[in-house]
Specification:
The protein is mostly helical. It has one domain (2-212). It has helices spanning 5-33, 38-41, 55-64, 76-82, 86-105, 107-110, 128-146, 154-162, 165-174, 178-188, 196-212, and strands spanning 190-191, 194-195. A hairpin with a 2-residue loop joins strand 1 (190-191) and strand 2. Helix 7 crosses helix 11.
Length: 213
Amino acid sequence: MLNYGIPGLIAAAVTLVIAFTVHEFAHAWTADQLGDDTPRINGRLTLNPLAHLDPIGSLMLLIAGFGWAKPVPVNPYILQRRTPAGMMLVSAAGPFSNLVMAILAAIPFKAGLIEPTFFTTSRVLPSLSFVLSLFILFNLFLLFFNLLPVFPLDGEKVLMHFLPYSGQETLNRLRPYGPMILMLLVFLGSFGGINILGALISTPAVRLFQLLT
């Protein structure tokens, strides 16, 4: 993102604020709808970015391409009393919101109003096409990244719901090592000549971007 200079930073900042905020709000709203007022009590049932953005995580994303927002606190016991799928639904809401945002942002491209581009001619302000293109691709990256079945990502809780008891036990045993596994995936990226993150995140994100636009 930094390679695009000031226009790239502006587009990345706009994308980051909206995508992270809506993603975390989706978690909070879904939990609230399922009877858990924990997000509301903690001030997370809002679209105010200040309630959701983590300063260090946001800066890391702009600099290194890897970052995070503040996790939304929920009470799994309340959610499970409402429905056994409670945690799964709350976890899936975040990535689903990223997919919805990508689809909505792609409408001008599908309608033929503008063409997608990752180039900008201005030295100060990014074009609308550049902002929307980056916004769509970033949301798709967030979608597939968060669906990885590794703790603390959303995909781990989604997968947990659909596994038999033996599979759930395996994931529970792996949970303490989740952050370490995630860091290895992010910073190593490839194993045995295979680009793991590329296969799991970049490739499907780019293909879906092409389909949407």
